[in-house]
Design goal:
about 230 residues, alpha/beta, Rossmann fold, DNA polymerase, domain 1, 2 domains, 6-stranded parallel β-sheet, 10 helices, globular
Length: about 230
């Protein structure tokens, strides 16, 4: 696992569930739309939507509803688009409530360590509203690069978003570490040949084919261990 620690020059962060808990806002928006449509929506399905694009999330939601709960309604492409837009409008409504206080515990300390030790930082989020969230969190000056959902064609677990972030930083893929809370994001980091750091419960970060190089229970745990983790590379 330590084979590329000594090479790391940049750290790429997911946003939702890593820097702040906008995943809760996404879940509430999806549930509100699903309830209006009578689409079954359970916590397990909500967990699968972490780090996934809006279109892919709706596809997963409808697939689960049909295969597990017998949901019968079909949607035209225009109706499908309307469902996505409605969910997004509910999510955007909630963004104004986000402030610097919504940074997850440990995040500030991690940024301070990386800046002090001259690592480059990027934020790569599938959310098309990522820049507004970053602005509301008052961390616009922290990342050296930002890539959001408006700039990618393929959602995670495709590695495109992390590859774009690395390219923007001017750092080789194998010299990047990715901090992710979603299985799809860990898979994407692994597919890009980057070091992956999984955040959250084992059943989430180790789901499917996602096996992170390192795993921490939360960002606070990473903040306590980051000095030891990165200095072990020296």
């Amino acid at each position: 696992m330590e084979k590329h620690l000594h090479q790391i020059q940049a750290v790429i962060f997911d946003l939702d569930g890593v820097i702040t808990d906008t995943s809760t806002l996404h879940t509430r928006a999806w549930k509100r739309m699903a309830d209006e449509e009578g689409i079954p929506f359970d916590p397990q399905t909500a967990d699968e939507l972490r780090g996934v694009s809006r279109q892919k999330s709706l596809e997963i939601l409808l697939y689960k509803a049909r295969t597990l709960h017998g949901f019968k309604k079909n949607y035209t492409p225009a109706e499908f688009e309307e469902l996505m837009n409605r969910k997004n409008s509910y999510y955007v409504e909630s963004l104004s409530s986000i402030t610097e206080k919504d940074l997850l515990a440990g995040v500030k300390e991690i940024f301070e360590f990386l800046k002090a030790n001259r690592y480059k930082i990027a934020i790569a989020s599938s959310s098309k509203n990522a820049r507004e969230v970053i602005k509301n969190l008052q961390i616009e000056g922290i990342p050296d690069a930002i890539v959001d959902g408006t700039e990618i064609e393929h959602s995670k677990p495709h590695p495109e978003i992390f590859q774009k972030a690395a390219n923007r930083l001017g750092v080789a893929y194998e010299q990047c570490a990715v901090v992710e809370d979603a299985a799809s994001g860990v898979e994407a980091a692994n597919a890009a040949g980057m070091m992956s750091i999984g955040i959250g419960p084992e059943e989430r970060s180790l789901a499917g084919n996602a096996i992170p190089d390192y795993r921490f229970e939360d960002m606070e745990a990473l903040s306590r261990g980051i000095n030891r983790l990165f200095q072990s590379a020296e």
